[in-house]
Amino acid sequence: MAPKILLVDDEAHLRRVVSLYLRARNYEVETAENGLEAIQKVSADRPDLIIADIGMPGLDGYELCSRLRRDTATRTIPFIFLTARDQDTDRIKARKIGSDDYLTKPCPLDQLAEHVETMIDRIEQAKKIPLDQIGSSGQLDEVNVLDLIQMLELNQKSGALVLSHGERTATLYFKEGTIIDADIRSPKREEPLFVLLGWKAGRYLFLPDAMPERMPITASLAHLLFEDLRKLEGQETPMASSVADASTSRSSAEDSAVGRLIVRLEEVLRRAQTETVSLADRHIFRLLVVGTLGTGKSELIQFLVDDLSSSRWAAVGADEGDREQHMDFGLVRLSSDTLLHLLSVRAEKRFRPLWEQCLPRALGAILLINPSMEGELSHVQTFLKARHALAPSLPMHALVINASHVPDVPGLPETDCSVGTIDDQQVRLSLLDHILEQWFHTHPVRA
């Protein structure tokens, strides 16, 4: 059956235009003029997704979202705000009351459709997990962590989801489908929730009705992930003091390919810090490694950290000597106060909320493409469209693996692609060099 969307807005012209556009894309669309009418329609026929304005007479969008989130029968319905309000205070309030997405008017219809498609895809992925798996243990390599979490949300489950990954454990507490507490630990330190998305092996167990003793969290899952990523980067500056001083390896590597690359990278970072809008947050610069599940993002991060000198090594959630453990975070200290953060980002469209947070503030992105994987090029095209909308000037270079030539992908010039393998150091250094060259080209020296 076609997904059902409820569009709530007091502007008749907008309701008509958006409805026609979404119906032409095989969505079933109902409309409401205000929050009260929306409540009535939700009670009569539960939609799969709600799109609502904020400023409406009577019951506004904020109160509509709040009421739906307080009702156990409707609290898991995905909710997108489509509004003319573009202030950070409005965005923060929307997140706090439980919205899943926030778009500002005027919003291109194709952009709205992309966000709707992403949200519907998240729902469909979660529905694929059989309900009889919950309550028994399972393997994380058989189910995606994010899909497992969203399935619990959609089915309004209460209890504790316990995850194990090597020596690390995590517990997420749910109350009627809403995460109310989260805790993830390694032998050395407490870690952020964001790191969960990189767990591809281990076990899970759901314990019905288990509740935490601490006060509940009120933010949405997406908000928790983003906030934890910021906390993580804030914690890395003092952590990096344990890494050997950069100069210890520079003297012997200055004339090598790696040494020359590091010199160029440091120049980019110095110049970026003088920009009006700096890429740096506490002198931490973010380089993204983007790809679908199984393309080797973690392995590439591990290689790149080693390439840029083991004396500058630091990895979140892994011991320095544990090179066998897959990582989705890497940290390289380039100077006494400048760090390069390598971050793995999934390219599947249901991860768009993470793209929105990561792309605009990134130094650049390496895109891994494996054309032999099912549906790979479709995911790549979706990511490229989002990158064009979110960060069109972001330096990016693609590495095509398991192929003899560059596939024809709209929006990806052949000049921005290389063919090779991630275990070839020359290929890896070339990827970084291409990204730095793009950055210098788009950021000329000011007179």
What does this structure look like?
The radius of gyration is 23 Å and the shape is globular. The chain starts with a strand and ends in a 5-residue tail after the last helix. It is built from 13 helices and 17 strands. A hairpin with a 2-residue loop joins strand 8 and strand 9 (178-185). The longest helix is centred in the first third of the chain and has 19 residues, at 109-127. Helix 9 (257-272) packs parallel to helix 13. It is of the alpha/beta class and 447 residues long. Mean pLDDT is 77; it is low at 236-254 and 310-327. The strands form 3 sheets. The protein has a 7-stranded mixed β-sheet, sandwiched between helices. A 5-stranded parallel β-sheet has the order 2-1-3-4-5, sandwiched between helices. It has a 5-stranded antiparallel β-sheet with strand order 6-10-7-8-9.
Short structural description:
36% of the residues lie in helices and 20% in strands. The protein has 447 residues and is of the alpha/beta class. The strands form three sheets. The protein has a seven-stranded mixed sheet, sandwiched between helices.
Helix content: 25-40%
**What oligomeric state do the depicted chains represent?**
single chain
State the end-to-end distance: 60 Å
Strand content: 15-25%
Shape: globular
Number of helices: 13
State the strand order across the main sheet: 12-13-14-11-15-16-17
The stretches of 5 or more residues where confidence is low (pLDDT under 50) are: 236-254, 310-327
Average pLDDT = 77
Please give the radius of gyration in angstroms: 23 Å
Beta strands, count: 17
Order of helices and strands: EHEHEHEHEHEHEEEEHHHEHEEEHEHEEH
Largest beta-sheet details: 7 strands, mixed
Given helix and strand content, the structural type is: alpha/beta
